[in-house]
Amino acid sequence: xxxxxxxxxxxxxxxxxxxxxxxxxxxxxxxxxxxxxxxxxxxxxxxxxxxxxxxxxxxxxxxxxxxxxxxxxxxxxxxxxxxxxxxxxxxxxxxxxxxxxxxxxxxxxxxxxxxxxxxxxxxxxxxxxxxxxxxxxxxxxxxxxxxxxxxxxxxxxxxxxxxxxxxxxxxxxxxxxxxxxxxxxxxxxxxxxxxxxxxxxxxxxxxxxxxxxxxxxxxxxxxxxxxxxxxxxxxxxxxxxxxxxxxxxxxxxxxxxxxxxxxxxxxxxxxxxxxxxxxxxxxxxxxxxxxxxxxxxxxxxxxxxxxxxxxxx
Length: 313
Known about the structure:
Blueprint: E1 4-7, E2 10-14, E3 26-34, H1 39-49, E4 62-64, E5 74-80, H2 86-93, E6 103-109, H3 116-125, H4 143-161, E7 172-177, E8 182-188, H5 191-194, H6 201-218, E9 256-261, H7 265-274, E10 278-283, E11 306-312
Parallel strand pairs: 9-10, 10-11
Antiparallel strand pairs: 1-2, 2-11, 3-5, 3-6, 4-5, 7-8, 7-9
């Protein structure tokens, strides 16, 4: 059962990362039956004469041979079959001290295990290493943080009531800063009013944060219409602590985003580029960036964040 946190009227549940839902995938490797004293020599031979293991560093090179009656033998992984076929492999080992070894083809897990359950399943195929990721630690919110999450979700729901309906994207978004427990910016979807197809709530909210940062840096007045109660500019990179700071950081780094409906793919990508810290939303969308593509934890993207779905208690 997924870990849930009660935040006032809302039950917050972390959405699994893509790796947590991966299925066991295997690939073929050449292995040899050896005596323990041969281990270091055959590994040296494999390192010099055979293709190096690529992408399966989680696979243990050596395990005990559990054949009936064999108590001291070992099995050692030599190379992946996708780089050499059997005839090519035999050509490499012929005329060496390993030419008469018993060579087998077995399957090993292609991907490293991400959860303890995967580790147990993967290990039944072939021994693998496992190091629990820090981000899999169960989220724990303090009482102040729970109040902050509820406040921001309620603000998004209130903004929603005044916004036009949208079919498959967030129509009201609030950005908050956990360190100050304050709302930084909030915006609704304005595609209908503006006639601009990109005026989604997330894009509007990011634009407000950008306008605030420009105004702060140029000392221009800030228009507070529909931007929330706080005049603070989002800072995680000590923006407010150092006047001569480097301005090359990411715009929304570390901010929390609260959406009524799950952001679309375009908006989710904008959140990735903006380096947000967390995303909370109430209504899931089958075509959303999280539900359909798991963009909060996609390996091909250069930033990941934690996403939560929120249910009214």
